[in-house]
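User: Just a sanity check before I run the rest of the batch. Below are the structure tokens for the first item. I only need the designed sequence back.
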């Protein structure tokens, strides 16, 4: 949509329900609350990913089922509601143990827990620099980079999650 603001042409966009406005005099930057909201959004996603990677390094798993928080000797309870309620694993079962194994360099163990954990872990790790770049662009009053680059890997991840789950269910 093109509208006039104090004699300047402005282009308005919406992303994740947040309105962004680019104006020629601001160098294509974000104005108003939209920029702050996007900073918070990207910052929270980056922080979440950092916590996931940190916990993957700090946590440990023993055997096939037990996951421990740092400094604790009691394992975490089963978190998969599908497994708890229905008695069957869900497509994401083994992802936490897979992340821990990847972070500790135990590749074959990670593969045994959930082969798709490699792709998901890479997507989580990749979010950290991606979000940092997005925050830096917003702070410099530049528009965000197009996030469509993640569409294909996420689609592949979902398809692979269900494919490996079906294979495990059949075998």
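Assistant: Here's the designed sequence for the first item:
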């Amino acid at each position: 949509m093109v509208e006039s603001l104090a004699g300047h042409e402005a282009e308005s966009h919406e992303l994740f329900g947040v309105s962004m406005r680019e104006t020629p005099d601001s160098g294509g930057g974000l104005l108003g609350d939209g920029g702050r909201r996007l900073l918070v959004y990207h910052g929270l996603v980056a922080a979440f990913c950092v916590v996931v990677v940190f916990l993957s390094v700090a946590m440990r798993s023993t055997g096939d089922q037990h996951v421990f928080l740092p400094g604790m000797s009691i394992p975490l309870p089963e978190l998969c509601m599908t497994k708890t309620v229905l008695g069957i694993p869900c497509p994401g079962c083994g992802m936490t143990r897979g992340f821990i194994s990847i972070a500790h360099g135990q590749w074959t163990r990670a593969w045994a827990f959930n082969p798709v954990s490699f792709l998901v872990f890479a997507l989580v790790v990749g979010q950290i620099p991606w979000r940092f770049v997005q925050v830096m662009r917003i702070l410099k009053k530049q528009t965000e980079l197009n996030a469509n680059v993640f569409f294909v890997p996420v689609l592949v991840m979902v398809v692979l999650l269900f494919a490996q789950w079906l294979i495990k269910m059949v075998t």
